């Protein structure tokens, strides 16, 4: 760093740093092995080298908690002789602690890195709005320490004045700075040296942590080098929620007392998410008054006296809410009771780091958590599993997260013209997922050809080609006259993004341009020769493999003299599907929605060559989409006529409701993950939607349907669907839905209609019938119908109940299937997945079979009553939604198991909750396969009618389309 002669003459601290350079002392026998740690030395040298070679470019240093990050920062400031440094830290506590360490220079003096002649810096702590007196103190200081919140209080003019006073910016715990605040600080310090330090280089708000990672000290190295202590995980498994906190506390206190008895000077921290929860668990801990529990939260106030009491170990138990984290240095804090777990890897790694600092006088860090009823995601679930090795798991989690950041950097660094490539990617481009595809031979691919693609008014400002030369990115600027004025006095400026991706394996070039077709064509001609556009039927292949495909719009080209092109949107598309099938019209463009591999997907295509998806994504995401599209459009085995045969048609319902409506379900907008969080309020009483179900539609008249809403077979309220001219109305008085904000339930249902099933296999949404001719009136195949001998079974009683009555329909079904499964779960009741959920773990997959049971009404005998097929068929169709949602499925079973325990009802008929919990994690790695069974002894196999087989066929067709699995039906002889 260049010497500032004026400051050298006027500032004694700065002069002492220049005259007495910091020595990077390595540990050895000469200094009792007290010197810079390996990561500290590497970080110091790497940072100084970066500041010499690329001082204007922000850089990130990754050092795990406990490896001496603060001393490293101090060493870099002193070794680099920074003139005046702004240090940004995430909290008030860390601001004070960092200031103390700068003033003490304790460790650097102790190891001999600096001598007595090196003066401690003059420190100013910045907080609140700045005034003239603050600026005087800042100018008189060597180090100013602030929090992001304090900087955010500055307006642009004040911030600019502040920035002018500093030579360097250092950000500690950089992942904590909110994206908006960080953008403001980054813009203000643009061009000035900036170093970011963090243990976790991924933001809590999921925004990119800008700045190249110039040094990364992996957590595994910190563990093997002895800077990161071993971690003991002590799980408890309590599925009854009301007992979970007591179980965690009991285990944590047991560990604390054992450590104290062994002479280890340990302290226990009990963590809660909310103040209310902290107060609840404090009532458990305060029974151990000999350990002096204390409750600490933001509203209680953390006075210096209390902090001193905690540091002097007066309190052996601290119950806190997100307190005493970064900035609280207490090596004796060795036991953590996690009553509420962190779900973020970044926060978890930081929290763990607080307890794993190495000290020969102390024992291993210990964590206690309840591993039952987990709600954490795949990344963190491994921590909360049976016999988890936390030392290993957090290493893996850290490496995976950091590797993703390094992959992002690798993507950013793969361009020949690094400066242009980085500038484009720094704009965080999110192009529309669309392209025009061309067939191009490798010799005709010219990735550098558009670098000078300048024309009247438009010029290339940024241009870059990937290292593999398969991706081109360009940004152009166009200045043009405004449409509303005939003058050259004023003009408007447009910026355009150009992308080209060449898939060498298939010889396919994809072009994406945010401008118009003319610009895209000009770009294509610059980067390729003899390019043949992919058009016509080939583009429509992108619709292949989409189940329950529903066209949203169709453009048709016709051969008549007066009418050459027509566009059909929404439900109007049904009227023209016949024209496509009989060849009286040619498809020009199509956009549709359907299911692909069980996931909802969209696809659009034009005969002229454009292909798209209704989405935007990163450039990396766009190229991945191009890879998938390339496979389809180059597959000559795909016949687009076959696609049309399975497209869903829509027709309006006019005058009267159609006969044969037998089942109702909640709107498709309410998915698995939010169904439990959706409530309806009826006359002031709040109900979870999971506890309510729609009953069989009742025909009040030709134009009115009534849908009862039931809880445990008791009607709570009803929904009326009334046909009116050109539409329908929903009536459910005094009912409100709480889902992303509150609103009248009737208003919600008019925009998000109930789903009604008709006996012919069609689906009613609002006042429209949706059907596919190929799957209409499909009968259940005879091979899928079988019978049991129901002798001795009360077939008029469905549920086995809490008492486990085996002579009921559900109980008898359990006795018939139990030997074939590892787990059998009684899920009977409101919000059930199925009456019985049977689970078997195989070597390569997890098999989950849903058994939907129904009884024979009292006084009836097995026969051919079509109404006996209605509800059970609808329930089977509804359960198909659990495909590809294995984690949620097992989570739902564990949730219902835990809730039922409170009322003394054990839903597990075979197996235990531990197995369920283990499978919840395993299903992320093993394929989940679903099986669907209907058990209805009221149906006689010998007497069953085609009408009944058609109703059962509605479920069969739907389940097969979504899951590829065949529905099996078990009846009486």
Characteristic terms for this protein:
Rossmann fold, 30 helices, 6 domains, 11-stranded antiparallel beta sheet, 973 residues, 7-stranded parallel beta sheet, 45 strands, 31% helix, alpha/beta
Description:
Strands 14, 15, 16, 17, 18, 19, 20, 21, 22, 23 and 24 form an 11-stranded antiparallel beta sheet that branches. α3 (38-53) crosses α4 (69-79) and α28 (886-901) runs antiparallel to α29 (913-922). The chain is globular. It has 6 domains: 5-217, 3-Layer(aba) Sandwich (Rossmann fold), CATH 3.40.50; 226-390, P-loop containing nucleotide triphosphate hydrolases (Rossmann fold, 3-Layer(aba) Sandwich), CATH 3.40.50.300; 418-533, no CATH class; 538-647, no CATH class; 651-775, no CATH class; 782-972, Restriction Endonuclease, CATH 3.40.91. The model is unreliable at 376-407 and 559-563 (pLDDT under 50). With 973 residues, the protein is of the alpha/beta class. The longest helix has 23 residues, at 390-412. The chain is built from 30 helices and 45 strands.
CATH architecture of the largest domain: 3-Layer(aba) Sandwich
Assembly status: single chain
User: In the CATH hierarchy, what is the class of the largest domain?
Assistant: Alpha Beta
**How many distinct domains?**
6
Principal-axis shape? globular
Rounded to the nearest angstrom, the radius of gyration is 34 Å
The separation of the N and C termini measures: 91 Å
How many separate helices? 30
Identify the CATH homologous superfamily of the largest domain: P-loop containing nucleotide triphosphate hydrolases
CATH topology of the largest domain: Rossmann fold
Helix proportion of residues, in percent? 25-40%
Poorly predicted runs of 5 or more residues = 376-407, 559-563
Number of strands: 45
Kindly name the structural category. Answer: alpha/beta
């Amino acid at each position: 760093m260049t010497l500032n002669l004026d400051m050298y003459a006027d500032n004694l601290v700065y002069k002492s740093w220049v005259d007495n350079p910091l020595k990077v002392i390595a540990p050895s026998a000469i200094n009792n092995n007290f010197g810079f740690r390996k990561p500290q030395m590497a970080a110091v040298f790497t940072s100084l080298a970066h500041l010499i070679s690329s001082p204007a470019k922000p850089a990130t240093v990754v050092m795990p908690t406990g490896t001496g990050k603060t001393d490293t920062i101090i060493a870099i400031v002193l070794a680099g002789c920074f003139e005046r440094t702004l240090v940004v830290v995430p909290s008030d506590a860390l601001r004070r602690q960092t200031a103390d360490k700068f003033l003490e220079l304790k460790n650097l003096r102790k190891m001999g890195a600096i001598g007595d002649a090196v003066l401690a810096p003059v420190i100013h702590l910045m907080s609140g709005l700045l005034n003239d007196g603050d600026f005087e103190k800042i100018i008189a200081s060597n180090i100013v320490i602030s929090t992001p919140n304090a900087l955010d209080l500055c307006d642009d003019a004040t911030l600019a004045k502040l920035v002018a006073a500093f030579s360097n910016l250092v950000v500690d715990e950089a992942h904590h700075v909110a994206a908006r605040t960080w953008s403001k600080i980054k813009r203000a310090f643009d061009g000035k040296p900036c170093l970011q330090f963090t243990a976790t280089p991924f933001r809590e708000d999921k925004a990119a942590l800008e700045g190249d990672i110039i040094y990364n000290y992996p957590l595994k190295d910190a563990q093997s080098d002895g800077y990161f202590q071993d971690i003991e995980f002590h799980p408890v498994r309590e599925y009854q929620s009301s007992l979970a906190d007591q179980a965690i506390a009991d285990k944590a206190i047991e560990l604390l007392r054992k450590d104290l008895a062994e002479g280890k000077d340990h302290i226990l921290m009990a963590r809660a998410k909310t103040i209310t929860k902290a107060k609840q668990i404090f009532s458990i801990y305060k029974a151990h008054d000999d350990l002096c529990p204390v409750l600490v939260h933001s509203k209680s106030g953390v006075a210096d006296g209390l902090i001193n009491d905690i540091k002097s170990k007066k309190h052996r138990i601290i119950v806190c809410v997100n307190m005493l984290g970064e900035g609280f240095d207490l090596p004796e804090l060795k036991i953590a009771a996690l009553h509420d777990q962190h779900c973020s890897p970044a926060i978890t790694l930081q929290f763990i780091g607080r307890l794993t600092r190495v000290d020969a006088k102390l024992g291993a860090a210990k964590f206690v958590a309840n591993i039952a009823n987990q709600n954490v995601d795949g990344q963190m679930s491994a921590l909360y599993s049976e016999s988890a090795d936390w030392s290993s798991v957090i290493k893996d989690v850290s490496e995976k997260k950091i590797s993703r950041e390094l992959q992002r950097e690798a993507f950013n660094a793969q361009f020949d013209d690094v400066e242009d490539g980085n500038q484009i990617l720094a704009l965080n481009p999110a192009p529309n997922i669309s392209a025009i595809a061309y067939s191009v031979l490798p010799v005709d691919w010219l990735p550098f050809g558009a670098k000078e693609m300048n024309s009247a008014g438009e010029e290339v400002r940024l241009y870059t080609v990937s290292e593999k030369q398969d991706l081109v990115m360009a940004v152009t600027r166009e200045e043009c006259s405004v449409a509303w004025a005939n003058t050259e006095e004023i003009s408007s400026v447009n910026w355009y993004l150009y992308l080209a991706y060449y898939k060498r394996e298939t010889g396919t070039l994809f072009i994406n341009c945010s401008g118009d077709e003319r610009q895209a064509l000009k770009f294509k001609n610059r980067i390729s020769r003899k390019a043949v556009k992919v058009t016509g039927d080939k583009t429509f292949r992108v619709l292949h493999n989409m189940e329950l495909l529903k066209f949203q719009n169709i453009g048709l080209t016709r051969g008549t003299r007066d009418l050459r092109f027509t566009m059909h949107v929404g439900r109007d598309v049904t009227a023209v599907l016949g024209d496509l099938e009989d060849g009286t019209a040619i498809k020009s463009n199509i956009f549709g929605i359907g299911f692909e591999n069980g996931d909802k997907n969209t696809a659009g295509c034009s005969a002229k060559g454009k292909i798209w998806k209704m989405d935007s994504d990163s450039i990396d995401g766009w190229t991945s989409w191009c890879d998938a599209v390339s496979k389809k459009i180059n597959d000559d085995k795909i016949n687009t006529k076959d696609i049309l045969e399975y497209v869903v048609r829509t027709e309006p319902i006019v005058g009267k409701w159609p006969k044969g409506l037998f089942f109702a379900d909640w709107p498709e907008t309410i998915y698995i993950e939010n169904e439990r969080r959706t409530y309806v309020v009826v006359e002031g009483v709040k109900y979870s939607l999971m506890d309510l179900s729609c009953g069989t539609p009742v025909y009040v008249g030709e134009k009115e349907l009534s849908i009862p809403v039931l809880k445990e077979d008791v009607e709570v309220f009803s929904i009326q669907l009334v046909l009116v001219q050109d539409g329908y109305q929903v009536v459910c008085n005094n009912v409100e839905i709480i889902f992303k904000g509150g609103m009248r339930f009737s208003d919600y249902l008019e925009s998000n209609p109930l789903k009604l099933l008709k006996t012919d296999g069609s689906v009613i949404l609002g006042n429209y019938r949706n059907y596919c001719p190929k799957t209409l009136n499909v009968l259940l195949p005879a091979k899928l119908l079988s019978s049991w001998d129901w002798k001795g079974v009360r077939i008029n009683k469905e549920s086995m109940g809490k008492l486990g009555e085996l002579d009921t329909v559900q109980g008898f079904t359990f006795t018939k299937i139990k030997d074939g499964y590892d787990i059998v779960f009684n899920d009977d009741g409101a919000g059930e997945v199925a009456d019985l959920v049977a689970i078997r773990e195989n070597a390569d997959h997890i098999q989950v079979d849903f058994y939907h049971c129904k009884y024979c009404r009292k006084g009836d005998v097995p026969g051919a009553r079509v109404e006996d097929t209605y509800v059970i068929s609808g329930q089977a169709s509804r359960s198909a939604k659990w495909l590809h949602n294995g984690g949620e499925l097992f989570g739902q079973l564990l949730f219902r198991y835990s809730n039922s325990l409170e009322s003394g009802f054990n839903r597990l008929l075979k197996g235990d909750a531990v197995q369920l919990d283990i499978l919840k994690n395993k299903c992320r790695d093993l394929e989940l396969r679903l099986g669907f069974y209907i058990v209805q002894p009221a149906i006689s196999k010998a007497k069953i009618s085609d009408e009944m087989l058609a109703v059962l066929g509605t479920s069969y067709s739907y389940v097969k389309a979504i899951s590829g699995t065949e529905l099996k039906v078990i009846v009486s002889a």
